[in-house]
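Sequence in, structure out.
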Amino acid sequence: MTKEKKKAYKRKWYLSHIDHVKEYNKKYISAHPEEVKTWNRENAEKYRVNNKELYKARHKRWRLAHKEKLAVWGKRWREAKPNYYKEYEQKNPEAIKKYRVKTKANRRKLGFVFLNSPFPNCHGHHIDFERVIYIPKEIHKAISHSVLRNRNMEKINKEAYRFLNKGGL
């Protein structure tokens, strides 16, 4: 028997005995709850990793089918934690700052690929539409420029590369 025939036979058998299979599974799960719980914990992550596209599609279908339920859950969560976002902003100011800079850049249709790390008293300078070099605020403000209009970009980029080559963090 070839693999395809075997698979077709198993599927046909399963469909013709589906009530029996469901009954058997129900009894097994109720008789071995800890074993089933352990197996599920161990294999759920493997399944998600191996079937990412299927999992995403199933999740999307579920969310579309249960919009009302999700809206109720979301409303209940927001009512239970009214100050969550304010508290998060206070606890994580660096993450919020990074997020806002990135969203502002996206609105301006600019990418955000860092070439160095941020440091105190710095500004992110787009050397082109994608790449960013963090340079001291003084250098960035000294030369008026615009990446969108390509105004004074050669001058400011020369200064930015000079800073970066000097060991600019």
